[in-house]
Amino acid sequence: MKEFFKVEDLHVSYGAIQALKGVSLSLDEGEIVTVLGANGAGKSTLLQAIAGLVPVSRGSIFFKDELLNHIPAFRIVLKGISLSPEGRRVFSTLTAEENLNLGAYTRRKDAKEVIQAKERVFVLFPILKKRRSQLAGTLSGGEQQMLAIGRALMSSPRILLLDEPSLGLAPILVKQIFDIIREINEQGTSILLIEQNAHKALSIATRGYVLENGHISASGSASELKSDEKIREAYLGGTALKNSEV
Question: Would 188 be classed as within a structural domain?
């Protein structure tokens, strides 16, 4: 039986600085898996390596038993893995709809598929339909985050990589974003989630990993991580996360 997605003994360096030091993790089809960690732990580097944006110095990345190392980033999108990056990184001088169209570059030969993908995004994020002709740089922070996720969804990925989707957002928008992440997952997209808001991340994740100084220091089910005293102290403010919290 083929494994859906896994990373084995991944090492990534920036010159003399070793950002990832033997990271291994897996994602099963249909799961939400979160990676927790402080700033500088290597979380964004992990997603960038999976997306083909930074070179891997050692280790392996497999998707459905196919090795992804050294495959160009655009081909990784074609294979079904898409990244919504930290900081949104929308094209500010293009409209919201033009940003979405760029996310569909892998499907540009099939106009019907592009229209269908865009309609899916507009159902998930109705405000983007209203803002479709507005320059992305003039959108609010929350709207830009929705646009970044929507752009990543335009290729209809099997795996969505989310890097800090709640960063800088007001609490009411954070709840909205996480509700939508859950809905995207329920529609069949597996999600690897990087998130500093450990409460929210563990509320929707199946499993989680803790990344510290470039290596995995803990892993387990969401409930196991919630009840781990060290993880509660470091990431959950010293209090256990109630199962009912959303």
Answer: no
Residue 242 lies in a domain: no
3-state secondary structure 154-187: CCCCCEEEEECCCCCCCHHHHHHHHHHHHHHHHC
The number of domains in the chain is 1
The 3-class secondary structure across 187-209, one letter per residue, is CCCEEEEECCCHHHHHHHCCEEE
Report yes or no: 217 and 42 within 8 Å, Cβ to Cβ. no
Element (H, E) at 211: strand 207-212
Tell me whether residue 143 is in a domain.
Answer: yes
**Residue 219: its H or E element:** strand 215-221
pLDDT average, residue stretch 139-165: 95
Tokens matching residue 155: 């290729």
pLDDT digits (tens, 9 = 90+) for 176-185: 999 999 999 9
**Is residue 57 in some structural domain?**
no
pLDDT in tens, 40-55: 899 999 999 999 999 9
pTM of the predicted protein model: 0.91
Question: In which domain, by residue range, is 107 found?
Answer: 88-156
